[in-house]
Design a protein that fits this description.
This protein is of the alpha+beta class. It is built from 9 helices and 10 strands. The strands form 3 sheets. The protein has a 5-stranded antiparallel beta sheet with strand order 1-2-3-5-4, sandwiched between helices. The chain has a 3-stranded antiparallel beta sheet with strand order 6-8-9, with helices on one face. A two-stranded antiparallel ribbon has the order 7-10. Helix 7 (about 210-225) runs antiparallel to helix 8 (about 230-240) and helix 7 packs across helix 9.
């Protein structure tokens, strides 16, 4: 694989292994130096719904604000693709089989990690808005552009046409917002754990100021996807909230329409 010169100059001599692919033109490589250091390199189409340019800006802001997120080494655009090179964070991914083997231990760690993330930086300091109006506007734009179809939706929403999903979103729309700096995609693969504590967070492309239930709805969904049913209530109680089915329904549908 040939990398842009700006990237290549930062990883000359590093071993490169494809870590995962998340769609056409979207790949992540793990890089290892001769002395055992690690970096991660991502590429994504420049016209993606969640751009690496946006993720770069968010990651740099979050790092400067004191959130435990990767340090950006360099980022660039070449042709129709964006590239982002970051330092690795310590810790094991929450999808590590050894961690998933004990969900009764892992789920509270994830919930407390999210609470830490929300409490660390006051929302007014964050320059990236993703309040309800912003989010619904993005969803409407994606529907108008023909980017949403039933196969893109999770099973509980697959019966809805894109237009019906937008109508349901308006019906479910909460009247108030409890604003925090949200991760935006709080799921197990995006959390790193060290000695029983969530110590790092990755994939910050949708970080922004939003209702805390944006993360709570997706985070509790993720424990079901990755660990099986029966863990959502433990996740929410460990975070310190009582389940709000109305907001859960709204933000999960919103996630399907905007991510």
């Amino acid at each position: 694989m040939r990398f842009p010169a700006q990237i290549d100059s930062c990883i000359a001599g590093w071993a490169c292994a494809l870590a995962w692919e998340s769609g056409p033109g979207s790949s992540t490589w793990k890089l290892t130096s001769a002395d055992g250091q690690h970096r991660y390199l991502k590429t994504r189409p420049a016209d993606a719904a969640v751009t690496l340019g946006g993720e770069t800006a968010r990651m740099r802001w979050a790092r400067a604000a004191g959130l435990p997120v990767p340090d950006v080494v360099t980022a660039c655009r070449l042709g129709s693709a964006d590239w982002l090179l970051t330092e690795a964070l310590p810790g094991r991914s929450a999808v590590d089989p050894a961690l998933k083997y004990e969900p009764e231990t892992l789920v509270p760690i994830l919930a407390r990690g999210l609470r830490q993330f929300h409490d660390l930086v006051p929302a007014p300091q964050c320059p990236f808005p993703f309040r309800i109006d912003d989010a619904i506007a993005r969803g409407r734009g994606r529907v108008r552009a023909g980017l949403i179809s039933a196969p893109d939706m999770h099973p509980e929403h697959a019966h809805l046409s894109p237009e019906a999903a937008l109508a349901e979103l308006e019906r479910l729309r909460p009247r108030t917002e409890d604003l925090v700096v949200c991760h935006g995609d709080y799921c197990l693969p995006n959390v790193l754990i060290t000695d029983g504590v969530a110590t790092g967070f990755v994939d910050l492309g949708e970080l922004g100021v939003a209702d805390r239930w944006w993360d709570l709805a997706v985070g509790s969904w993720s424990v079901t996807w990755n660990l099986g049913p029966g863990w959502e209530d433990l996740f929410l109680s460990s975070y310190g909230v009582t389940r709000d089915d109305h907001r859960v329904a709204f933000y999960r549908l919103l996630y399907d329409l905007t991510s």
